[in-house]
Amino acid sequence: MTVARRPDPATALRAALIDRGVDGDAVDGITLEALAGCEIDVDDPPLCAAALLDLGPAAVVDALQNGTGWAGFAERLSGALAEVGDVRGDAARDVLWSLHLAAGATAVATLRAVLPDTDVDAGIAELASSGVVRVVHPSAGGATSGSRVALRLSGIGDAVRESRGRLLAGHADSMPAATLALDLRTVDDIRAAAADTARSVPRVVVLRRAMLVAVDRLAAVGRWSDVVALVDAAAPALAAVGLHRELHRRVQGMLGSAQDAPDDVRTRLRAVSADLHLASGDTTVCRHLLAAIVAPDERAVSWRADLLAAVWAVHVDDRAVLTAVDRFVAGGGSPAAAAQVTLDLAARLFGDGRTADAQDVLTVAGVHAAVAGDPLTLARLHVTEAALHARIGESAVGRRRVAAAYPLAASHGDHAFVHVLASCVRPLHGEPGAEGVARVADVLDLAAVMDGVDVDRRRVLADVVADVGVGMRGATAAPAPVSAAAMLRSLYGQVAGGVSGVTGPGPERLTDREQQVAELVATGLGNTEIGARLGISRWTVVSHLRNIMRKWDCASRVEVALQYRDGEAG
Q1: pLDDT digit string (tens) for 183-232?
Q2: Residue 134 in 3-state DSSP?
Q3: pLDDT tens digit string along 93-120?
Q4: Which fold has domain 90-170?
Q5: N or C: which terminus of the chain has fewer CB atoms within 10 Å of its end residue's CB?
Q6: In sequence order, what DSSP letters do the residues of 457-523 get, joined into one string?
């Protein structure tokens, strides 16, 4: 028997957009890949295409991966949906109701906790067999033993109709208590994850969506101690892998609007906001917030903010920075904080072309990183060393350093390894916008051909795009002096650029749209101007430019422009 393979989701989404009479570039390729990696499975491309055109990509990604505005999003879609399955069993209906209250996805263990009198496994089995839900990250024991369960896009109508039925049957009074039970379970799960230092990052990343939903709902009912517990526990883990921006926007929103919150809560939220500003490289705002907080546990954050401001100043005094680091450690300061500052200093010197000085600083950073023992810090050390070896032509040594970084970072999940590489050599300071997402996509392209590296590309893109925000702009720092893609290509050769090492008939041909983009790049136009000229989004321009650079084996837009002009001259 021949089993029909499901078409590639991103390709199917693009085809569905074209079927609706829209240019296939109406939504850029990276966003389509991200949608294909969302926890809410996009199993109905025409429906998703309609939502993209009706609500916009930002709202769709926000609902499917962040859980934001779930109720309104689900109601908006439900009118276009027929019931997927014939949901009859009481257990299945209970699970469906709870899934809808959980914004479409939750852990199986959570359902068991909030539905103690329901046969949750039987309910999930019925829903899965009828195509309403899928079990995510299943274990070997079968579908219902998987760790998470999520609605499919086509199953949202079933969930909405179950919700309406219960409300009409007079169960509205039970909804706040049921919702609160789910959110308090999330608080417990996040705190337990944060306490598990060896696995806190991947566990918090998996719970990120539920955490964002819970923060909104708990703040709305004034449960401030639970809100603080959530953001305190989640912020460090998400910042460690660059997935902190959506949480930070919520914290900033609460500081701006929740005037009724107790003073101690607002003080703690300011401290978290300061930490997250520092994670985004905004030392000025971080220092401003900390100036109003008297908190001994924020000493390392305040010190790092001061030193990083000096590291990334117009002119850096590396000796003064190293002296300050020595004093900090001698006074009992955190070796991990010292390692992060010295790694930033090495990156700055590397970007300035001071390779020998950067190597000296890396030696100091290595001592602090070894004492701290943090795997992510050690992974960043290895990748920075790899960049230095790439610059001086020692590709074999550089490859060994990247290979050493992978198990250290990957022990904290796929996002950790990708973030360490994408931050090379200068961290992704500020809100990276389309450029930052494109850098992550570049790294994912290259990681796919590295021996022994296994990264779930679409899952990573789904979280990164949802966290950065579709179409966000305004990077606050200069571009990285050496991109991760360029560094990795120099280490891994043409294969890492997506080009076969076997001699073939010549470079891959550009599509007509890519040819147009290359021509406009050669004229000196920026991404925004190119997008306006061609009637496509800036993100789509970035996506086309990535394809051009891969096909032409270019490391920068300057090389694209030169190669285009050479071709015209020839």
Answers
A1: 999 999 999 999 988 888 999 999 999 999 999 999 999 999 999 999 99
A2: strand
A3: 999 999 999 999 999 999 999 999 999 9
A4: Arc Repressor Mutant, subunit A (1.10.10)
A5: N
A6: HHHHHHHHHHHH-TT-----SPPPSS-HHHHHHHHHGGGGGT--SS--SSSPPPPHHHHHHHHHHHT
